[in-house]
């Protein structure tokens, strides 16, 4: 069998990745460093799913991510080949990306990832070691060779007993032998030039047990075992040299010195194990070191929370933080934006509204300001766990309320905590949770929104008084009993979700098992829309709600999408139903839009089009849902995951923030909110150059403005009425042939015909 496996790798399988930098922006977190490499004057730091470089001489930082063609998967190891000027990125799922620093291109190598005879959990890339033109790859199944000159795989070595798969943590070459640190099988070694390395019988064993790493330095070979014991090879046996007091996280030779990374220490030794430097941690910072290297007197440390740190051998108590500006984390739970501003929360609770699975999240929140950057507010400042949502006061945007799915409601003013509302100081009720019977202040706030009078409304899960209103001027909290609509909110209904408010100040929020819950404040009346037969919901688990520009309620559920065309009617008509959207496929067959797909969020842009976040990617739909304008997935975009947790839009710029469980990106959308005048109308790009194949956007429009585009002689080539603040033109004459080179007049008239505006677009073919 091993010969068949070897033959597979003789045929390289690779594809060139696409660059998405024209339309997308990387907003990943670079705080969780997995591995480091050095070469060509640069430190290469691998975060969870992206890499950045730090130029030692200039301090310049450059990001390399899925925007540039990386896969966006979880990185497990990196290596830089100075001879070939290549960055090699290995992933937990067996993928390998090769980034050419000269051409700025990514080659995706999928041989290991697609190998069917190796179980997916055993494809992890653990380490790269370059020897001559060969790249020796340590994996969870054994060792693979990759030829850097030919860009193709060579042999694969299964070195376990009887040729079985064996996890290899690290490889080195010492005195013409390959040494492999393995899991439970000690140190395996064989001659580097042995033509029969695919034969497990040629691999000999030193010692036993699990070895975390093995390196060669000058005339010595060192290995570290699972007991954190550094050992040196002497006459084909290992002798103990240093017993470390902490778990060894990283062992490498860097700049002809031995670097040992511990949990919160880094030790550097010379070629005969004399101490060179001992580095602790920054004062007042919790660290979890993953990797470290040294060049001259500079020590670079990768941390799983604080990012890339730099210190020196002469002053190891002084640290510089080098990671690019970005959010705290990549596992986005919720997004909330206003013009030029974005808030990110990391939650969370599971499918059954359990915040304890696997444990209460203590992550803090992130705040982004255009032209300023990121401000990350840590958990230590908030002292609130499982923060599910941020709600911005539209009348006072520096006032933000955080919904904690355990610690109640937290009020921020200019990013500082100014008030808390929980079961100990307000009318909130505490949850009686069998998972935590001793907790007396468990308040699970989730969906929240401001009404037109400036009151904050929100829901609290697993209590009878599951709806609240906060008078933010007087700090008065009022709660409402929901049992008339949800008879058992403590038992059957495990949680409430999104909360939205219509133009008449009626409240609507989603639930785990009771469908849509509506509340009319003027009559103090609760109603529900639920069930397949009564409410035409595909599932009573309502995950997302949003009102569009026509005051229609779009409803996302665990198993599909619905629209409630007359939401206020539910308070007078108990038989009012939601409606599915019926579209026709390419063969003209009628079908339901997004049937059986789990909807995670719905967002409306300035043109009344809909962005829908699902577990199958991001969908951009026309205003009525009949046309899918875009469907973004991992395969056709830089999204690192098909699980889209939330989408939010900056109404001024049209920028679309897309959050996933593996990172945040921004898509350069063009739909903006409508304007009060036509004063700021613009067309872009302008001029339209020969190599441009996209759409021309005209924004700064009033709602329902009439836009006519004519040639210089007055012949009409395009006409449209804006739904929001922008329209797009494909530079064709009514969708047919492309217009010729020339100047085109854009004639804009407001809906009431009281305002007009004229601008020009130059087209160059």
UniProtKB/TrEMBL annotation:
Residues 43-204 form the PorZ N-terminal beta-propeller domain. It comes from the Bacteria. Coiled coil: none annotated. The keyword Signal applies. The keyword Signal applies. Keywords: Signal. This is PorZ N-terminal beta-propeller domain-containing protein. It comes from Mesonia maritima.
